Amino acid sequence: MATPIINQSSQSSAAARCMAQPLAANILINANGEPRFGHFATPVTELAIPQFVYRNVMDKPASALAKYLHFKQFQFISISHPDWQIGIAIADIRYAGSAFCYFYDRHSNSLDEIELIRPFSLGVQMSPSPTVGTARINGAQSIAMTLQQYNWHLSLKGALLSGELTLHGDVDSSPLALCTATGYNGWTYTQKHNALPVSGKLHYRDTALDLTTALGGYDFSAGYMRRETSWRWGSISAHLPQGRFGLNLANGVNETGNTENCFWLNGSKQLLPPVNIRLNRQQPAQPWQFVSTDKQLNLQFQPTGCRQQRLNMGIVASNFRQYCGTFSGELQLETGEKLALNQVPGLAEDHFARW
Q: Which PANTHER family match (predicted)?
């Protein structure tokens, strides 16, 4: 089947349907002050952090300071094109706020980036909801992510990247929305959606980028995560002969009863079982292996470019590597059809955090 053509009018009509049908209230914290766990058919509209009853490991009510400091949140947008990759993130871990913005050229294998760090998250704003609000950080590269139901709007101002961009969600294409228990008394809510059509205008160092074949993906994650945590992750937003294809694979965080593994094909989402992710940290050029427990997914990721950060300040630490590269292999659809991937551009990440 040929790749569908998505024009400006179809994007506008999808956005109009989203605006015409406001999302019903979907509050994460229940009347008992506890998070609701599992997959959600529609996105959470309100995290309701003030209503969450946070306790310490001795089951005593945690202090207001502990409740504030232990909450973490980050938002990430990726824009994938056959010739280049863009990654943009804003994070608030309370002790510090940070952001990065990079442009990766697949042909020259070069990565151009800007990083921002704000002690105690001063001047960093995060969206209070996965479906409404704005995350923002200003500096040499100003970044703003505005959430509007199923759509994400991106505004960039700086020498590296500038312009306005929209990732178009749709009421007919559901994002991954999942909350799992984390550690003894915490929880993590994750909302992701890949292979979204994009529109707008974007410049890389004053050169206009052609967004005709670009696709976007986003990640909204928030909650009371483990003090020391790590994860491995793989992501794709690409055009295949069968249509728009998005993939999200992870292990290490959201695996308490459910996983965040899934893929989208032309907007239709299919959940996947647990996936083992293997890599060699001492030889980062070696391929990664992604294999599902039912063996229906078997992919190899070949890393090329890398955006990395190593920071150790005692109370907080980060060993972060996000790789641009290509995926090859196959996965099986619910229909039994096998989907072949041959050097499809994507991302992989290996991250340790103490926060």
A: DUF2804 DOMAIN-CONTAINING PROTEIN, DUF2804 DOMAIN-CONTAINING PROTEIN-RELATED
